[in-house]
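re: ur question from yesterday

yeah so i grabbed the chain u mentioned. its 327 aa long if i counted rite. heres the sequnce exactly as i have it in my notes:
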Amino acid sequence: MRKEMNDNMDDLLVKYLLGEATMQEREAVEQWVAEKTVHRKYFDNFKLIWSRSKQLAAHSEVDEDMAWLRFKDRVEEIQSPVVPMFSSPFFRIMRIAAAIAIVAGAGWFAYLLSVKNDKSQEVAVHSGNKTRVETLPDGSVITLNKNSSITYAEHFTDGDTRQVVLTGEAFFQVTPDKSKPFLIHSDDVTVKVVGTSFNVKNTTEKTEVIVETGLVEVTKKEQKVRIRPEERVTVSKGNIDLVKQKNDDRFYDYYRTKKLVCEDTPLWELVQVLNEAYHANITVSHEKMNLPINTTFDDKSLDEILNIIRVTFNIAIVRDDGQIILK
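ran it thru and got these structure tokens back, copy pasting raw so excuse formatting
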């Protein structure tokens, strides 16, 4: 019975990571992850394996079935202990990662197995229901938005690169080190920098990178693009195209600065950010949608912001069963 429950959760986790889960399924996964520390750790390992195996897959053409057989033969030859794996999506991810690693000559699968058996090999940082600032061993500073997390190796500064896996959204201020590029893996998108500051946001629909300072390289499969300050790259799920644009989003780092800077900002655009920032359900009537607002909300509560909007535009605010209507 327990194995069946684990397999069902693995199925949900795969759908969740693919962005194919329904709202009810997403809620089930997030509730399960929040229930216990061991669930959160399992999810982080699952996410780590998923993200990295997709990165390796982008650069390797491999028959996973044949590679897996070669892997098992090799293990039997050296009579090494085998980590028990079940016939589930998680097993399949591990299997693909192993196949890719063998053909590509990568050592990542060995690392994944060690993570499975030695929890001290990785560090997982979660923000929970509030933002969190984390300083990495190299001095880089990461500000995590709510309900976001990063995972990185305990010996972070060893090796030729500094690598983290991101779930959710974070602002990075990376300590310069030309000898060890800094890599962020978010699903099948990789962000590569040396020393700079930028924001990465990963949702079920897309991954978005916005640069404040320095130069950032964004990669998906064989596609690659470099972006500079005041530029952004958007990568939609299921699409390999990297869309580079001038960044006109003034709200992207509100969770870090605690400021919402409005300069002729349409009311509908501000409402979108308020819904995300405060987990609210605000709608605005059609005739009020494009009212331009010019002000800065500096660490204000939602009620304070709504009151300023009400006074500025002389509009009514109606609350109805959790919904807030501006009209």
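noticed a couple things. The two ends are 53 Å apart (CA to CA). also The chain has three domains: 2-117, 122-246, 258-326.
anyway ttyl
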